[in-house]
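forwarding from the other thread:

> can someone predict this with biotin?

sure thing
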Amino acid sequence: MNERREVILSALREAGDAGISGEVLAESLGVSRAAVAKHITALRDFGYEIKAARGAGYVLAAVPDTLLVHEIAPLLRSGFWTRIETLPETGSTNDVAKTLARAGAGQGTVVLASRQSAGRGRLGRSWMSPDGGIYLSAVLRPQTPLAEISALPLVIAIGVARGLAASNVGPRLKWPNDVYLDDAGVRGDERGRPSGKVAGVLLEMAAESDRAEWVVAGVGINVKAPVQRFAGAAYLDDHLIDPLPVSQVAAHVLDHIAGVYREFSVAGFASLAAEYRQLSLLEGCDVTVTGMDGAVRARGRAMGVDLLGRLVVAQPDGETLAVSSGDVTLRRTEH
Ligand code: BTN
């Protein structure tokens, strides 16, 4: 959206129901009334409902419930996000953010899309990304030593969980960085709401000798259920009596990613491990961790995570293993 449209939009917001005339807008922008009318048409094309009332001029009647920078930016509390790009559709926001990072985009750059045609997930899987979700990728430039960066995906997952909690649901984490609503796959949901995985995190990075040059943290969140729901997925709006605008959810998640990332940058994962364990739905459960090749890496009781973000598994033979990647399946045991 161009700068003039931004100015028109904030003037419309400020005017509220009283409205603002095309003449006043034209004068304050130093353009013709015809140019103002063109910008109003463009804003309508973005989904803004703008009424043209006789006498009152233009009145902003409704804003679109889509990811638009001019809806998200005013809601952000954190000053971390310095460059926000919103796209109606792209292949993968991680790819867009990686291109920006390689071209020198600073930490605090974030790309959001309403739809992805080639969304990618962990372990080489694809991430179905229809309308109704939030697909975002943030450029980070952590100064954390490379050896400790392995905990960063878990840190981002805490940020997503905090952001969803601020959006009025109770998220849980499944190692390493899946976000669930309710204990999906363990007990089902007694209240009958479809529960499952609501968000996933995919980190990609380029490293120098002992530091990351850049990290792209990609987050996919299921907000509104598509006509054909994905097996095992949960959708935020199913869990809310009053669903929030998607921009508000995105702003909550971005603010909390910024907050938790700052904590990690200052104090490392040590300061966050307890919160991770509290949010974890694996804690104290019997789990099996399998690698990409399907081979079992560990089987036993999940005992939390270590400072490198590895899952600690106590095996039946008494040995303890720390696993750094893989897929977890679990069976709840009675305590
Ligand atoms: C997972 O497998 O759970 C991780 C899914 C990560 C999906 C997000 S959507 C935004 C960003 N762009 C991508 O292509 N992937 C990530």
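Residues 246-267 form the longest helix (22 residues). thats all i got for now
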